[in-house]
């Protein structure tokens, strides 16, 4: 039996933090190790409380959730994964959060059981949360802010094998390792090896960063 996932709740509304705490503490799979009312406090508490996952609101005083995510993702002393709490009206913020190092996001109207599942998935580093919604938001943001997909090639993309490029496209489509294995009729371990090499070659923190890379490089076309 594995230890409960250690969760830090960061939101400027006390009622929201209390709601998350009550929900998470009904599960034997999660434990709330702390609360933060602003991004700066969340960064400090990540260093002292060592959470596995941070539920991060975007709009907070002192330091917003995006800046806090950048600090957490870039701190070698912290091993927490950030799960952004957002709404459909914050598309730009979602994309920025993924670029900053967030491992995924959940919508504020997510059912309780889906929230618990999301935390477990992010803590395990297996897959991006609500992937098809995420890729839709990323695609729309790229389309709206650039008018076209960038044709630039990020460092490492030229070093990918044909199969690694194919796997990257599947990751960007929101497919899990198991789904990718079924698609290519290969073993799960083979897919994990490909994903591991993608992370290394593209200097990506996790699968969320691979999705961003696939869109920004033009390997995946918004709406395609």
From TrEMBL:
<dbReference type="InterPro" id="IPR000792">
    <property type="entry name" value="Tscrpt_reg_LuxR_C"/>
</dbReference>
<keyword id="KW-0805">Transcription regulation</keyword>
<dbReference type="Pfam" id="PF00072">
    <property type="entry name" value="Response_reg"/>
</dbReference>
<protein>
    <submittedName>
        <fullName>DNA-binding response regulator</fullName>
    </submittedName>
</protein>
<keyword id="KW-0597">Phosphoprotein</keyword>
<keyword id="KW-0238">DNA-binding</keyword>
<feature type="domain" description="Response regulatory">
    <location>
        <begin position="6"/>
        <end position="123"/>
    </location>
</feature>
<feature type="domain" description="HTH luxR-type">
    <location>
        <begin position="153"/>
        <end position="218"/>
    </location>
</feature>
<dbReference type="Pfam" id="PF00196">
    <property type="entry name" value="GerE"/>
</dbReference>
<dbReference type="GO" id="GO:0000160">
    <property type="term" value="P:phosphorelay signal transduction system"/>
</dbReference>
<dbReference type="InterPro" id="IPR001789">
    <property type="entry name" value="Sig_transdc_resp-reg_receiver"/>
</dbReference>
<feature type="modified residue" description="4-aspartylphosphate">
    <location>
        <position position="57"/>
    </location>
</feature>
<dbReference type="GO" id="GO:0006355">
    <property type="term" value="P:regulation of DNA-templated transcription"/>
</dbReference>
<keyword id="KW-0804">Transcription</keyword>
<dbReference type="InterPro" id="IPR039420">
    <property type="entry name" value="WalR-like"/>
</dbReference>
<dbReference type="InterPro" id="IPR058245">
    <property type="entry name" value="NreC/VraR/RcsB-like_REC"/>
</dbReference>
<dbReference type="GO" id="GO:0003677">
    <property type="term" value="F:DNA binding"/>
</dbReference>
<dbReference type="InterPro" id="IPR011006">
    <property type="entry name" value="CheY-like_superfamily"/>
</dbReference>
């Amino acid at each position: 039996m594995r230890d409960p996932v250690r969760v830090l709740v960061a939101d400027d509304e006390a009622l929201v933090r209390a709601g998350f705490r009550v929900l998470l503490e009904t599960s034997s799979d999660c434990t709330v190790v702390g609360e933060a009312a602003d991004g700066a406090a969340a960064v400090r508490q990540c260093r002292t409380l060592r959470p596995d996952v941070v539920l991060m609101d975007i709009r907070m005083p002192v330091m917003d959730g995006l800046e806090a995510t950048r600090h957490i993702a870039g701190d070698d002393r912290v091993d927490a994964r950030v799960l952004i709490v957002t709404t459909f009206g914050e598309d730009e913020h979602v994309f920025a959060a993924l670029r900053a190092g967030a491992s995924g996001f959940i919508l504020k109207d997510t059912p309780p059981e889906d929230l618990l599942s999301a935390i477990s998935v992010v803590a395990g580093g297996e897959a991006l949360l609500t992937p098809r919604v995420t890729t839709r938001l990323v695609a729309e943001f790229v389309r709206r802010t650039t008018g076209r997909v960038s044709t630039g090639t990020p460092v490492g993309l030229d070093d990918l094998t044909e199969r690694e490029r194919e796997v990257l496209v599947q990751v960007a489509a929101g497919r899990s390792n198991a789904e990718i294995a079924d698609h290519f009729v290969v073993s799960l371990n083979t897919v994990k090896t490909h994903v591991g090499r993608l992370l290394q070659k593209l200097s990506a923190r996790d699968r969320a960063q691979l999705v961003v890379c696939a869109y920004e490089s033009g390997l995946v076309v918004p709406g395609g």
